[in-house]
Design goal:
The chain has 535 residues and is of the alpha+beta class. The chain is 41% helix and 15% strand. β10 and β11 form a beta hairpin. One of its GO terms (molecular function) is inositol hexakisphosphate kinase activity.
């Protein structure tokens, strides 16, 4: 079947059934209505669920047809294979997992200064799941590819007091597995079998075949409707799988995201982030931020509804750059001074990159504080030198590179840009002008002036058709400043200043893109010259 081979992503298929989102009515009308008032955020858990069922998402395969980044351009990723040999991970631990197994020292939740709502709970859930995996499976995701739907389990209500979940299931007439169409498919099937109008066109040959004989027109019609419903179902399955196959979570916390049928990305609710997004929808930065559609409750958790920035892109190429000269909040440092919480997972990440980084004491306790780890990450990457760092790049074949941890110079960043864009001038230029436009918008943004922007990313996305854009994402650690305080964002941080250095990072990126453009232009001219001399 076409859909199974198209992207080579699917190992198997299991359709998800779920409840109707509680705030999902009239979604398309909202999208087009610019004056739409975002729904009130409802915190807490859903009480309507009597029984919760857990089922696996479709498993996804990775492909890796291009050589890795560090082989392409002279081994920039110094922490690649060699380190892996020195400090091998347990064979059954997924490389890409963000929250490594804790060894002995439990994380103290008091370190969280701002309520992150359900996210802590989900982090714990993933840690537990990881422990379970270590015990029960020897699956290894060797290239670190973390396609969201391949690793996540979805909690879903199988029966709800309000009947919505039940309704979604009975619409298909089935209850589980392959045989159970997705709720949206169920609806489509239902309506397509009940009406003659369909958005799916079939060849006239097919229609002729069905209606050419005069006899038993009624049963022919029924047969046609049946086959059309089936085709509609397959087309929709294909569409749904393709979308799931092309969406990827490149960086960030595992378990934070889900896709919804409405073409949105659902991110686990965080009050800080929801408030920022709400303000951003009324700010000069709105064109640079995914559209925010309020919140929705799914199962036990509340999610922020965001525009899917990969929608419409075929085999997207993505880069996530974490912005700013630091990735920790000032409060994280001061709190760590009074309350010491040790993290063995962070110690492990540290020694993997540089075995000499921990102090004698840290080696002895095999743990570091989060604040120490975050500061070390910033000073050993381009965060402190250039005001941003590349968190990861996904190429069009789905391969993911995360070996940019030790990049410190602009020249190395420019090499990474050329690799990421495959030196395509039109894409480099599109990114360059988008960043210039962003820098103008930031000048006019009240939100930007009045917020400390920590840990936020710029998401670069393009595809083979040269659609290219850059978006501001992740506002989970972006906080409003006290009254009348405004930040410049273009000066280094000094404790107490709350400066984040966002504009230092933006300027570095713009400079790097300018360099990449001139290098790509000369490469192009050289190859043109060579072609002409051969001719
Ligand atoms: N609106 C969106 N559309 C498409 N992809 C998205 C969107 N938002 C996030 N992503 C994907 O998810 C990844 C992680 O996003 P984000 O940084 O918001 O998560 P996070 O868990 O808060 O991260 P962190 O751990 O850095 O705080 C991004 O790198 C990107 O690949
Ligand atoms: O990128 P790395 O080196 O893997 O390190 C992670 C990164 O710094 C995240 O930004 C941070 O989450 P926050 O931004 O939410 O603090 C996370 O902390 P966590 O493990 O406590 O979630 C770190 O583990």
């Amino acid at each position: 079947m076409d859909m199974m081979t198209d992207d080579n992503y699917m190992e198997g298929l299991e359709m998800e059934t779920e409840n109707q989102p509680t705030m999902d009515n009239d979604f398309s009308a909202r999208l087009s209505d610019k004056t739409y008032q975002y729904p009130t955020i409802r915190e807490g858990t859903s009480s309507s669920c009597r029984r919760v069922k857990v089922r696996s998402r479709p498993r996804l395969q990775s492909t890796k047809s291009f050589p890795p980044y560090n082989q392409c351009i002279g081994g920039l990723g110094e922490d690649g294979d060699g380190d892996d040999e020195l400090y091998p991970e347990p064979s059954n631990v997924t490389r890409g997992d963000r929250n490594d197994v804790f060894q002995g020292t439990e994380r103290n939740e008091d370190i969280e200064l701002i309520p992150r709502c359900a996210r802590d709970e989900v982090k714990e859930h993933w840690k537990l799941r990881r422990k379970e995996r270590v015990g029960e499976s020897d699956e290894v995701d060797t290239d670190g590819l973390e396609r969201w739907s391949g690793k996540r389990r979805v909690e879903e209500k199988s029966e709800c007091e309000d009947g919505r979940g039940k309704g979604a299931q009975t619409a298909s007439g089935n209850t589980a597995g392959w045989s159970s169409p997705h709720p949206i498919l169920s609806k489509l099937l239902h309506s397509s079998s009940g009406s003659s109008g369909s958005s799916i066109n079939f060849s006239s040959a097919e229609s002729d075949d069905v209606f050419s004989e005069g006899e038993d027109v009624g049963s022919k019609r029924r047969a046609f409707r049946k086959s059309r419903s089936w085709k509609t179902y397959l087309t929709m399955v294909h569409w749904s799988l393709r979308r799931q196959g092309s969406w990827v979570q490149l960086a960030g916390h595992q378990g934070n995201f889900q896709l919804s049928e409405g073409g949105e990305v659902l991110k686990l609710y965080c009050e800080v982030e929801a408030k920022c997004l709400d303000s951003l929808m009324r700010d000069a930065l709105r064109p640079f931020v995914p559209q925010y559609h309020g919140c929705v409750t799914r199962g036990e958790h509340c999610y922020i509804r965001l525009e899917d920035l990969l929608s419409g892109l075929r085999r997207p190429v993505i880069m996530d750059c974490k912005m700013g000269v630091r990735t920790y909040q000032e409060e994280e440092v001061t709190k760590a001074q009074t309350r010491v919480t040790l993290r063995s997972d962070m110690y492990q990440k540290m020694v993997k990159v540089d075995p000499t980084a921990p102090s004698v004491e840290e080696h002895k306790q095999k743990a570091v504080t989060k604040s120490r780890y975050l500061q070390w990450r910033d000073t050993t990457s381009s965060t402190s030198t250039l005001g941003f760092r590349i968190e990861g790049i996904m190429m069009e074949d789905g391969s993911i590179q995360r070996d940019f941890k030790k990049i410190l110079t602009l020249a190395k960043v420019t090499e990474a840009m050329l690799y990421f864009t495959r030196s395509q001038l039109d894409i480099l230029k599109a990114y360059h002008s988008r960043l210039l436009a962003l820098s103008e918008a930031l000048k006019n943004s009240l939100f930007f002036r009045t917020h400390e922007v920590i840990g936020s990313s710029l998401l670069f996305v393009h595809d083979h058709s040269s659609k290219a854009s850059v978006w501001m994402i992740d506002f989970g650690k972006t906080t409003p400043l006290p009254d009348r305080l405004e930040l410049r964002h273009n000066i280094p941080w000094a404790e107490g200043s709350r400066e984040d250095g966002y504009l230092i990072g933006l300027m570095s990126l713009i400079t790097s893109l300018s360099q990449a453009i001139s290098m790509a232009s000369s490469q192009q001219e050289e190859s043109c010259g060579e072609e002409q001399s051969v001719a």
